Amino acid sequence: MTLPRIMVAPNGARLTKTDHPALPMTIPEITATARACQAAGAGGLHAHVRDAEGAHVLDAGLYAELLAELAREAPGLYVQITTEAVGRYSPAEQRALVETLRPAAVSIALREITAEEDGRITARFFAACAEAGTEVQHILYDAADTEHLARLVAKGTIPAANLAVLHVLGRYTAGQVSSPADLDPPLAAQEAAGLAPDWAVCAFGAAETDCLLAALRKGGKARIGFENNRLNRDRSIAADNAERVRDLVAAARAEGLSL
């Protein structure tokens, strides 16, 4: 698995247009955002879909519609769906989405999908993903998640091949803010656990760009966008997700970082 160097997460599960008027919620809005972000330098999209009331849903039909639109309107863009539970969906419902849709790529929070007691179900699910060619990015929130992933890989519950992770910085700190120093503990935990995945980072708050630059410097990848932050590096409010991508691309190129 090779994640794009920059993936945009344009909406997330909880935010609405009251948080920012340019936050995309409908399939046409997400598609237009994807095109703009691809032109700005993003190689991938982390996709959430919303129902008619704007609520986050794990709806295979809506995802299929979005994926078809993106294939037509943003060819070549890496598209990853989410199984985020938001306190609403069970592991069985998360699995059902992936098994029905069989997407090319999906992000799955490790602590959510392994909430059931029967590890055999989890093992069968990840084996089915591998067989279907669905690339899984495991979402890790802390060192305990990283250690749990290492144990599951060692047991064969999660395939060791093509292992990919997203380290979430700042999600559980006051005000959902993060700093570049927050990258050190997850990378240390990853090394201590003997893992060498294709890894990426997302970060909350005004230091998002600096956190993602730190990840790029260390050989990681970046997930950027309104799901986590609406401020540019200079603390101005971004006009849209494409501006956030341009902000990161410009800063990375100024340092000579490969994108």
From TrEMBL:
The keyword Transferase applies. InterPro entries: Aldolase_TIM (IPR013785), BKACE (IPR008567). The keyword Transferase applies. Its cofactor is Zn(2+). It holds the Pfam family BKACE. Keywords: Metal-binding, Transferase, Zinc. This is 3-keto-5-aminohexanoate cleavage protein.
